[in-house]
Every structure is written in C-alpha cells, then in structure tokens.
Amino acid sequence: MSQIRILVVDDEPFNLDIISEYLEGAGYLLQMAESGEEAWTYLRRGDSRFDLVVLDRMMPGIDGLELLRWLKADRRLADIPVIMQTAAASPEQVREGLAAGAYYYLTKPFEPESLQSIVRAALDDLHQRRALAERLAAQRHALQTLQHGVFAFRTMEEAHGLAALAASICDEPDVVVLGLSELLVNGVEHGNLAICFDEKSRLREAGEWEAEVKRRLALPENQSKYVRLTVASDPLAWVFSIEDEGGGFVWQDFLELAPERAFAPNGRGIALARQLAFDELEYQGNGNCVRATVRKRRH
Questions:
Q1: What is the rounded end-to-end Cα distance, in angstroms, of the chain?
Q2: What's the rounded Cα separation, in Å, for the pair 260 and 249?
Q3: Residue intervals in the chain for CATH 3.30.565.10
Q4: β-bridge partners, 52
Q5: Are 69 and 36 in contact (CB under 8 A)?
Q6: What CDD domains does the entry give (predicted)?
Q7: Sheet strands (E) in 112-184
Q8: Cα–Cα distances in Å, from 289 out to 155, 168, 180, 186, 276?
Q9: Do you find a cis peptide bond into 91, omega within 30 degrees of 0?
Q10: Which CATH number fits domain 5-110: 3.40.50.10860, 1.10.730.10, 3.40.50.2300, 3.40.50.720?
Q11: 97-142, pLDDT tens digit by residue?
C-alpha cells in the first residue's frame, strides 16, 4: 500500500510546525503550503496526488473556503477529503464550509489526539469509498435485469459488498454506492448492535471501533439478527428499503449535518447520503426502516 500523502495549508509557519509534530510518527508523507496559492499549485501538478488536505480557513489572498470550492469543482480533485481548521466556529461558518464540501472540522487550538482522530476518520472514509469503487467496477453489469430482490445480511463486510452490488443497477452507481453503504452499515452498527453516536465517537477516537463491532456480532443475542435490503424497480425509479431489528433512533436529528456534529469523527453519513446519493430519503416509524429512491434517467 502506498504512503498516505497529506497537504497541510496554513499561512502561519508555527501552525505548520505544530501539525507536523502532532502527525509525526504516523507514517504520513506531509507537504506543507503557506498560502492558498501555493497549495493550489501543488494540487494542480500532474505528478502530485494527495489523500487528504488539512486546510486553514482564514488566510490572506486565496482563503481556505475559496480554495475548497476550487478543489471540489475540479473532477480530478473533488474526492479528496478536506479537514477545515478554524479559530472561529460559529454555526453559520460551519454551514458555509459544509455547503462547500468540508465535512471534517477542527477548532484551533486543538490537542494532538483531536487532530489524529479526525485525520484517521477522514482517511478511513476515503479508503472505504475507494474500496467500494473497486467492487463496483467489477460488478457493474451484474444486476441490470433485476426487478425485485430481497437480501439479508448481518456483518459490516456483507453490508459493503451488498452496497456495491445493489448500486450497480443505477445510472450513477459510484454516487449511489456511497449512500447505500452508509445506510446498510447503519443498520448493522446502530440498529442491530445498538452502538449510539456518542459511543461510536469514543470508540473511533480510541481506535477500538472495529474490535467492538466484532465483539457485539459474536454475542448470542445478536447472532440471529439480520438487516434486510429490498430492491424494487418501477418505470421511473429504483427503490431501496432497509430494515434492521434494532430499537430505532431519533432519525430526525441526523437528516442534516448539524454544525455541532461537524467536529466529531462520525455522524455525517445519513446527511451526506441524503444530500448526495438519493433523490428521496424517508425514514419510517421509529427509524429502523428507511426507504431511498433513485430516479432513472430517460434513455
């Protein structure tokens, strides 16, 4: 596996030194830029490929928000996750950043553990997206004739694989797969295994999340619990219905990416799925059943 390359952008050399010190020893290859102009030069170079950008919001010249918009408008760069660091984190500023594509936030000053945790979360999400894209490429034509199907699964690995398979029937599978993966994984971890938002945040910060998922899957009370995905086709749309056997959750709190959760290492999946992957997303009852609709293109 190639070394992770991170572009760090801040107009204060002292802040660049601090971030370098905090990430030292993690095996990352760091490229420092002291301005938005310098960062854009690095990003646009054909021989440069970055896995993550840590970006200061307030800079002279090209500020962080403007650079973020340029990055997200470039198809070659748009999938690079961006961590926005800011000294002022009002809800309005966070919403502005979220709208531009910054889904990870750090408030200055920050502790080493906070930086390391959000970096791990952003990279984990990136690796998951890339793995799903690879699966999707192999399964693109597998279900083109499907009219109705029901699938039952219980593990995270099964959720990711099924997301890639089911998304392959859609016109834009690389977009739909991200949303489906979020919903199917939620059915396992938050639904059947009852891992709440705060608990997942703590587990991810401690690097114990995967181990806890495996532990709970092995418990006798969870071994017969399944999440079910129903896929149905009508003349205008594909409809995906996901139902788990958990007690539900307050789903209304997660349809939008609230500013107060922008600084957490998790909790953004449902909002991003609703915003980016589906034409309609509707939770039913206590939240253990969700229906996602993807309209078909007219051919």
A1: 40
A2: 18
A3: 130-295
A4: 6
A5: no
A6: HATPase_RsbW-like
A7: 148-153
A8: 18, 22, 13, 11, 20
A9: no
A10: 3.40.50.2300
A11: 777 777 788 888 888 888 888 898 888 888 877 777 777 666 655 5
